[in-house]
Amino acid sequence: MRGIQPFFFVQQNLIEGIPGGARRLVDSIRKKFPRFLTMRVLMVGCAAGEGHLGALASADSIWIAEALHECLPQIARAAKASLVVLKDFSSKYRHALAGFSHNGFTRVPSMPMTRLALNFRDFDDYLAHLSYGTRKSLRRKFRKTERAAKIELEIVSDITPHLDEVYPLYLAVHERSPMPERVRFFIWRLDRRIIAFSICMVHDGTIYDEYLGLDYSVALDLHLYFYTLRDILRWAIENRLTFYCSSPLNYDPKLHLGCDLAPLDLYVKHTQPLLNPIFGRVVRLLEPTRHDPVLPKFSNAAELYE
C-alpha cells in the first residue's frame, strides 16, 4: 500500500458565497428550476478543513496524484456525480497536482487560510510591529476586558471533562456566521463558567487555530475574539512555534493583525468531456475569492492566482 485518499459526495450549490445581482438572478431561476446550478459532486480531501494527498511517504505524492487523476472521473461517473473537485489543497501541492491543472481540471483559488510568522520575543514585541491604530485599539480592548472581568485561561490536551460546556459554544459560533499529542484546547472561564474555547493543532512548528466557540452573552462586550487570540499567540511565542495559521474568512481583522494569506486551491472538472471546456470558464467566474473585497489588500494576494 502506497497511499489512502479520503473522498465524499455532496449536493453542492455552485453559487454559495456569490453576492449581489448574480445571486438574485439564480434565485429567480430556481423558483422554476430548483436544482439549477446545484450538482452532485465527488469531493476529494477533508470535509471540514485543508486537503492533503494521502501518500504514506512524501516521495509517493506525485504517484498518488497521477493515480487519482486516472481513476476519479470513472468513480464520479459510476456514482452519477456531475463534478469532481479536489477541495482546499495547499499551494504547496501545485507541483504534485500539476497533472490535474494541465490535463482537464481547472484550478481556481479557494478561500485561503491566513498565516502569521511568530518571529517575536513575546506578545508585546508582536504588538510593536503593528500599526499605531491597530496597536492602540487592541490595548484599549484588553484594558476594557480586564477591568470588566477576571477571565482565567486553561490549556488542556483532553477536552472530555468539559464537553457539555464547550460544545454549545461551538454551536453558537457555527450557527452565527484524534491526535491528542498535537491538539490543544484553550478554555477561558469567567467566575468558573466557560465563556470561550478554541481547538488548536500543533504540527511542525505551526499552530493551527481551527475552531472557536464563544458565549455571545458576554463575547462582544469583552472583545473575546481579540482577547482569545492574544492568549493563543502568547502561548505559541512562549513555546517557540514559528507560525500561527487560522481558518478562512473573517479577513479584515486578520489583515490588520499582520497576517498574510496561505493559499488553498480547488481543482474542478465536469464528468462530461464535451461540457468541460465551457464549465472550466464558468468556474473561474464562480470561484469564491473574486467577491471578497478584503483579500486583494493582503500583500501576497497575487499568490492566490499564480
Structure report:
It is globular, with a radius of gyration of 21 Å. It is built from nine helices and twelve strands. The mean pLDDT is 89. A seven-stranded mixed beta sheet has the order 6-7-8-9-10-5-11. It has a five-stranded mixed beta sheet with strand order 1-2-3-12-4, with helices on both faces. The protein starts with 6 loop residues before the first strand and ends in a 20-residue tail after the last helix. 33% of the residues lie in helices and 26% in strands. The chain is α+β, with helices and mostly antiparallel strands.
Which characteristics define this entry?
seven-stranded mixed β-sheet; alpha+beta; 26% strand; 306 residues; 33% helix; 9 helices
Strand fraction equals 25-35%
Trace the largest sheet across and list its strands: 6-7-8-9-10-5-11
Low-confidence stretches: none
Q: Mean pLDDT score, rounded?
A: 89
Brief write-up:
With 306 residues, the protein is of the alpha+beta class.
List the helices and strands and how they pair.
Elements: E1 7-13, H1 20-30, E2 38-44, H2 61-78, E3 83-90, H3 98-101, E4 106-109, E5 113-117, H4 123-128, H5 132-148, E6 151-156, H6 163-176, E7 183-190, E8 193-203, E9 206-214, H7 224-238, E10 243-246, H8 251-256, E11 260-262, E12 264-270, H9 276-286
Parallel strand pairs: 2-3, 9-10
Antiparallel strand pairs: 1-2, 3-12, 4-12, 5-10, 5-11, 6-7, 7-8, 8-9
